[in-house]
Amino acid sequence: MEEMIFSCLVPGGHCEWFHLRDFVVKFNEINGTSYVRSECLDVYGKENQHPGQTPKRPEVLLECEGEVPLVIERKAVVWPSTHQRDHSKEHELLGDVADVVREEFSDKLYQLSFWEIDLKGKSRKQVREFAEQISGLIVSNCDMAKSLTGIGGRSPVRWGFRPLASHEIDEPHQATGICSEVHVSSSWDLNPEEFHLRREAALKGFADRFDREANKAAPKFDDFSDCKKLFVVQFFGDHDSVTDEDIVGIINASQLPKQIDEVWLTGREWISLEDHELTWERVR
């Protein structure tokens, strides 16, 4: 298992079973068991609103004949706290531009490139305005945008738009449409002192967030003393100064609440040069 820090949170339904189905398959494979979902414990009724007077519960209850029942709580450990808000703007910029230009540019696969740092701290309204300006420039300069060199500029943010050559198209991509290339600033471009400060901030940030999520999860297990209590975590955020070994170290160094029996960490398992599957490993 590798690459344990993810950039993009995956949406799911109200019930965490959307995220946990594959975990249970992996858990059974590792342990030689056949646990199945018995109940989604955190679905509380109309629109899944949690009644204030009802104790919060883990996500799912699993049962297997001859085995101790399992309850699972899954948490996303996100650092910095603004990560998802900033990252979602990258999707919004691409989506808004694609919505405008898609009809005119449906003959090939085109790439919209921009710099991640140019969207940080911007409001959704500003990002929509950026998309409106960029898409207007693309449509009004159609011939240039379809040329090999494409079109681009430095206003309202740094951006480029061009058709991709066949050798540039990864296998999972469709043959036509609009994709994105997001240029990300790297911690490795910093001087040693700046890199050290960024790394220390990231390590502390992830550690604080893990402790916070573990402590939020713990009381949900209080009414399930007859079950084995699993805490499944997936880390999201800025990660180029933090290693997989750092993440495992953060979990092992944590003062884990007594209600949690096991901690399982989500990572990637590469099945080809271009594609991966989620996998899980018990780390505590």
Describe the protein in words.
There is one protein chain. By secondary structure, the protein is α/β, with parallel strands linked by helices. Helices cover 32% and strands 24% of the residues. The chain has helices at 17-31, 83-101, 124-140, 142-146, 192-217, 244-253, and strands spanning 5-6, 36-40, 60-63, 70-79, 109-115, 151-153, 159-163, 177-183, 228-237, 262-270, 276-282. The strands form two sheets. Strands 1, 2, 3, 4, 9, 10 and 11 form a seven-stranded mixed beta sheet that branches. A four-stranded mixed beta sheet has the order 6-7-5-8. The longest helix is centred in the C-terminal third of the chain and has 26 residues, at 192-217. The model has no long low-confidence stretch (mean pLDDT 87).
List keywords for this structure.
seven-stranded mixed β-sheet; 6 helices; four-stranded mixed β-sheet
Largest sheet: 7 strands, mixed
Structural class: alpha/beta
Strand content bin: 15-25%
Q: Which spans have pLDDT < 50 for at least 5 consecutive residues?
A: none
Helix content: 25-40%
- What oligomeric state best describes the polypeptide chains here? single chain
- H/I helix tally: 6
**Helix-strand sequence:** EHEEEHEHHEEEHEHEE
What gross morphology would you assign? Answer: elongated
Head-to-tail CA distance between termini:
15 Å
Q: Give the strand tally.
A: 11
- Alpha carbon gyration radius: 22 Å
Q: Return the average pLDDT rounded to an integer.
A: 87
